[in-house]
Amino acid sequence: MTVTGTVAAIRSEADGDVHVNLTLPVGEPLLLDAANDTYEDGQLVTEIVPADQPGCTPGQPPPLPPTAYRSSSYDYGTCTGADIATPPMGAQVRLTGPYVLDSDHGWMEIHPVWAITVLSASALPSAATPSEPVASGAAPTTPQEPTAAAWCRASAALSNDGYSGDYQVYVHSNQPETNATASDAGDTWSEHTDSSGYADIRLYHTTTGMPITVTVGTATCSTTA
Hints:
This protein is mainly β. It folds into 2 domains: 2-120, CATH 2.40.50; 152-224, Immunoglobulin-like, CATH 2.60.40. Helices cover 3% and strands 35% of the residues. The chain has 1 helix and 14 strands, in the order E-E-H-E-E-E-E-E-E-E-E-E-E-E-E. It has one helix at 34-39, and strands at residues 2-12, 18-23, 45-48, 92-96, 99-101, 108-110, 115-120, 152-158, 167-173, 179-183, 188-192, 199-203, 211-216, 219-224. Strands 1, 2, 3, 4, 5, 6, 7, 10, 11, 13 and 14 form an 11-stranded mixed sheet that branches. The chain has a 3-stranded antiparallel sheet with strand order 8-9-12, with no helix packed on it. Strand 5 (99-101) and strand 6 (108-110) form a beta hairpin. The radius of gyration is 20 Å and the shape is globular.
């Protein structure tokens, strides 16, 4: 199947897969099910597997992160030479691969991704700087650049999705419409903050007490699962 959409979230999985979530055009809502709406913010999950990622030598076993599953029953295959790079956040892409049900989580996804074409690499729009109304006949004033240093605050709590290793990371900052990334020892996930500087990020494979680091633009903060 081939779909087009906007890259809304990117996350590196413990098994080496890279999740690239897409916001789909209005005309393609039937590709999503209730689990996509509930757990993936109404986005289509797509996965680039280790054997197709850049740096994988054709014919050789794919390099895997330390968190990858090590089991004789779990086959990562061999490197294909596809060199499928992760597109940037906010990019408009065309993506091809098998459209399947993730039976563990219940959502629909494209797994594995066979090809990605970046149609437009434009990032999500940044928030406009507000200005005071200009009185009739008065010269407009030049908006002043913000002088406050970038900051963020983060907290974490178990996600209410039935999986014990899933945590929500709640991020508050003074950085609106900015890429926010939460990372722990086994997972990394990015979202964009809203117009108030807030983002809600989900991490998987997280254990209680694990440190979580958050970056929002140039701001860095931390919390504990």
